[in-house]
Structure formats: C-alpha cells, structure tokens
Amino acid sequence: MKKKNIFFVLLICFINSSCNKEEQTDELQDKDFYSDVTTRASYISGTITGEMNPYVSDGYYTYDLSIPIQKQSVGIRISAVGGEARFKTNYQERFESTWVTQIPAGKNHFPINVLWTKAGSNSTLMVRPEKSTIELTADLRNINVKMKPMPINAPSTFELGDTITLWCNYSINKDTGIKWTYDKNLFAEVSQSASVTQSRFQINLKSKQAFKNSDVGVEVHDFYINSIGAKEYFMARKSNISFPNMGPQIDGYRNIEQYKEYIYSINDSKAHTFYWTGKNIKIVSGQNSSTVTIVPTQPGNASVKVSYKYKNQTDNFTNELPLSVSKTSMQLIGPDVICDNGTFSIKNFPTKATVDWIVGNDLYSQLNQASPAITLNNLGTPGGSSIYTTLTAIVHTKEYTVQFSKPITFNVSGIQENDHDIIYGYLSQSGGECGLNPIPEGAHDFHWSVDCDWEVDMQGYYFTTFSSRNSHEIERVCVTVDFINACGTRTYIYNYFDIGSTNSGTYSTPKNSLSPK
Q: Does residue 169 carry a pLDDT above 60?
C-alpha cells in the first residue's frame, strides 16, 4: 500500500513537470514571434519641395522634406545626382557631399539646406534610409542648376598700346580665388585689385599687339568649410568678353601659290616705320613701306609679318598673317618622244623670269634661253639607236631659282620595208615561230600574216607562232608584220624564209640595230 502511494506521487510530479515544460515552450515561442514583429522594417515615402532653378554659389537653398509622423526617429542619407551639391550639417557652418542624419520622432517636416557647387540640368535630390527600421525614400527630380551671369565690364573701344580696365561685381572675401585668362601675346598685365567692401575686382591690361579677335575670361573660385573644418574650392562664376578688330590689320590673300607674286598692306594712317619679314617667303619690293610684294618659296605653311610703330609711342608692334601655300602650277610640258621634232614650254611661266634650257650633257650647243618655249629637232642618226636623255629647264628670278626636268627620247624608229632582217624565225614544213630583234622602241599593236596557206596562232605581240595546213612540201614562206611605231605611224616589214625538205628548219640571223628612214 505504501509502495502504491509512492508510485502515484511520482506520476503526479512527472505530469506536472511535463505541463510546466509545455507552458514554458509556448511562452518562448510567443516571445520570439512578437520580437520579430517589432524589428521588421516598415516602408514610407516622403515629398521634397523647394527651388527648382537654383544658382551655383548663391547661398544655401532650404528644401522641405515632409513625411508621415513617426513615433520613432528615422535615419536617412541625403545626396544629389547631376549638379553637385553640398549639404549643411547641424555642426556650425559646415557642409558635406552626403549628409547622414535623423528625423526626430513626431516630426513631419525636415529642412534640407543645400549649397549648389556645380551647374547641371536634370539634377536630383535623393533621400534614402540609413540604419533605420523605418525605410524612407524621397526624390526631387529635374532640378535645373545654373551658374548666375557675371558680366565683365570693359571699354567699348581702345587703341593699340592703350591700358584698359576690366572689372566684375561679385561678393568676395579675402580668400576668394580669382583667375583671369587672356592671350599673353596680345596683352600684358599691368595690375590686379579686389575690394571686399565694394564687392568688385578688376584687372588692368595693356594691348601690345593688334588682332582680329581676342577673348578675355575670368573665373571666380569660392569655397565652403567641409566636415573636418578645411576649405574646399569650387568654381562659382565664369565669364568671357570678346574684342574684335583692334589695331592695324594685314590685308591680303591667305591661300596662295608657290612662286607667284602677292601684295600685302597695312591700311592705318597711325602706323609708320615698317619692316617686313616672314616665313618661307621672299620680299620682292616695298620694304619699309605700308605695302609689300612677296613671293612664297615653299609649299605648306608660311607667313608674312610686319613690325611698325603706332602713333607717337616708342614701342614696336608686330602683326603676322599665316599663309597656306600650294605647290607651284608651273610645269614643263611637251612630248615624251621626239620623232621629227618636239616643242616644249613652261606652263604658267612668271613674268620677269628667264630660263636656261639644257638637253642631256649639252647635246644642243645653242638653245633659245630667253623664251619659255623651245623646239628640238630629232638628234638621231642613220644606223644609230634612239637617244634617251633628260630635258631640264631652270627658271630664274631675283627671288628664286626653280628647276624642272623631263625624260625624253629622240626616237629612231623609221624602219624601211627592206629592214627585213629584224624578223628572225625558226621554221619548218610544219610551221614554227618568229619574232622581232631588236624590238622597235615604243612599238605596239603588232599584226602578223604569212602566205602559203599557213595559220597565225596569236596576234598582238612582238613574237608569234605559225601552223602549216599544207599536205605537200613548200620551198619558201613570206612572213609579214605591221605595227604602230613610237612616232604614231604604222610600219610594215617582211622577210622570206627558205624551208628545207626536212623539219630541221631555217634560222634567220637578226640585225643588231634598226635603220632610220
């Protein structure tokens, strides 16, 4: 009986223990479930409003971020795409390119102070979540960030040698960066100055050379203090002014031809004491005057330059005009081959020029050296070969000497019909081959024929082959060839070949040269 009581007591304890474990497990599971619910992120969107056409470096613009009221703070990261922006932080007057901050609980409006540091169309302000269980996103798109105009003030007219003042109005401080740009070949800087109280800065430039067009520019570089207290500069303003046609100008052609004469001048009564020079040119006349005549001597880039004084100033001023020179159109023209005679001339021969004509190594003892055209008779001799040589024309002026050369041939190609021995051949009863030796110089369009009912196998060349269609033996065959010679006339020659009774053939010994007509 006692043992049964002990058993029931143990059974009750076991049951109670099991029940307690199940209750404990249920409590843990419920706790974990509600814990997940409280840490899960929620998503909200906001709206940004503010200036859609801001200017660079025009102070900071305040944009308003509106959101639904939250019971806890919302972590955000603010940045910009397009035009560059810097965001004013909560720490004094410091700016960051990306601002990480929090919107306090219970707030439905949050200010964003933006300093725009670079122009850009279609810029966007963006708000994204940063370490927050409430994920907030907001965008303000199509912001057109511009640079505010800042005109350069300058005199409307000035003369060569004058000192001019250029100035701008802008709110500056002692650390503002100002950078003027100008052509240092045209202007010399006299001085610069700036006034913080008058919000103005200026530069004084002295014109030292005339020009057709020149620009003067300026950049203002302002700054902000970054998160670590250092200055960071950016371009706040940029401006430009153009000055056209200041001072005496050189008048004349820019695109010219080698070896031709051209006139250039300075048409300004205030200019005097001229001295002309240049690159790849020769001065023909007019030195020390306002008008000069030049001859370009080389194709390619060239220039004409003048130094002078202006009004009563002691300084020397210079002007230079760049030139583009094409190759001379002068040309030695005439036939390549002289048969009876040939006429040669210099195309576009300059006035006041002379010419020396030279044929080979003085093959002609006397030539007309005064004329830009000559006629040469054929120097070939009967029984000789054609003469290959060079005709040279040397053109002289006071400013230059230029040489032109041309290969020419005194052609000895008037072959008579009795010059038959230049046809050689190896022929037999079945046919054979024939050719010309020597080949007539400049000859073309060969046409062969043969008698005795033989056939010509090919045409057009200085050689050919024949085929016999005869069933009986022949004793002699006549071969004829005609062609256009180098002088443009057609020549006919022929030769007879004795054909033996066997197929050993007959060979005609070629002549060593051609006989002239």
A: yes
